[in-house]
Amino acid sequence: MSATLPSRVTSASAAVTDFASTASCFEIEGLCLAYDGKQALRNLTLRIPRQRVTAFIGPSGCGKSTLLRVLNRLHDLNEDVSRQGRVSLEGQDIHAPQVDVAELRRRVGMVFQTPNPFPMSIYDNVAFGVRLQGIKRKRVLDEIVEWALDSAALWDEVKDRLHGSAWALSGGQQQRLVIARTLAVQPDVLLLDEPASALDPISTLKIEELIRSLKSRLTLVLVTHNMQQAARVSDYTAFLQDGELVEYAATDNLFTNPRLRRTENYITGRMS
Ligand SMILES: Nc1ncnc2c1ncn2[C@@H]1O[C@H](COP(=O)(O)OP(=O)(O)OP(=O)(O)O)[C@@H](O)[C@H]1O
Ligand SMILES: [Mg+2]
């Protein structure tokens, strides 16, 4: 694990490690979110370190996906959502009026649980966002497509069928294709919401290897139900329950030496 253990601060409700020695990618302060008046996130304050893997764990309905979606403003699409608090990316408030949301979503890419390749060729899937940015020259597109597929550990498996349908790929290959499509537009952050939960064990391991390999150039945030997966791939883990941040620490520490009984009960399976 590359992260060193920094000093800790404890608040009344949460045991939160202060990652003083790592640069922040996101800083979240006093974040509250409600769906139609029903509170889903309660006063969350945490930093997400740059070029690390941060995992969000916790029981179903605790707010993991909600928190992830705030980070690239996916909730803007939902009129029933109300939010308070501040989220900044590299020091800039992501909700400021001058923020270009399309550009924010380019910088902060998102991968969902079920692979969702577009109904087009492998090549066109990866080139899709790049073409939208106005890049049309075939040689440039070819280079970006190869680079992105290679970065997503898929190039060798698909290089001879780039113009075949993306839907003919296996589930695990489709998920890596979606990651390649996201990487092609050069994001700074990759948000992954249970990216391997629909996949077989071998494909899951490939996704985990990929996550580890990407953190040298990206910040990754991973939602997972699988605690072994969080322990295998993440540097830091945040445990959420009922919309609250309960404990947040270096992953090794959180799993081997949780500070709060609530965390221990969850990770030892006494609570689902
Ligand atoms: N679009 C929505 N409209 C209304 N309520 C929602 C919506 N999305 C989520 N919620 C509610 O917000 C709370 C948090 O949901 P969220 O999907 O963030 O949980 P989660 O931790 O990702 O759960 P899971 O592990 O099952 O995916 C839940 O009570 C859920 O019912
Ligand atoms: Mg979820």
TrEMBL record:
Residue ranges that the Swiss-Prot or TrEMBL entry lists as coiled coil: none
One GO molecular-function entry: ATP hydrolysis activity
GO cellular component: membrane
Pfam families: ABC_tran
Gene3D superfamilies: P-loop containing nucleotide triphosphate hydrolases (3.40.50.300)
UniProt-listed GO biological process terms: phosphate ion transmembrane transport
SUPFAM superfamilies found in the cross-reference section: P-loop containing nucleoside triphosphate hydrolases (SSF52540)
The entry's keywords: ATP-binding, Cell inner membrane, Cell membrane, Membrane, Nucleotide-binding, Phosphate transport, Translocase, Transport
Domain ABC transporter: start-end pairs: 26-267
Entry-linked PANTHER family: ABC TRANSPORTER I FAMILY MEMBER 17 (PTHR43423), IRON EXPORT ATP-BINDING PROTEIN FETA-RELATED (PTHR43423:SF12)
Protein's recorded name: Phosphate ABC transporter ATP-binding protein, PhoT family
Phylogenetic placement of the source organism: Bacteria, Pseudomonadati, Pseudomonadota, Gammaproteobacteria, Oceanospirillales
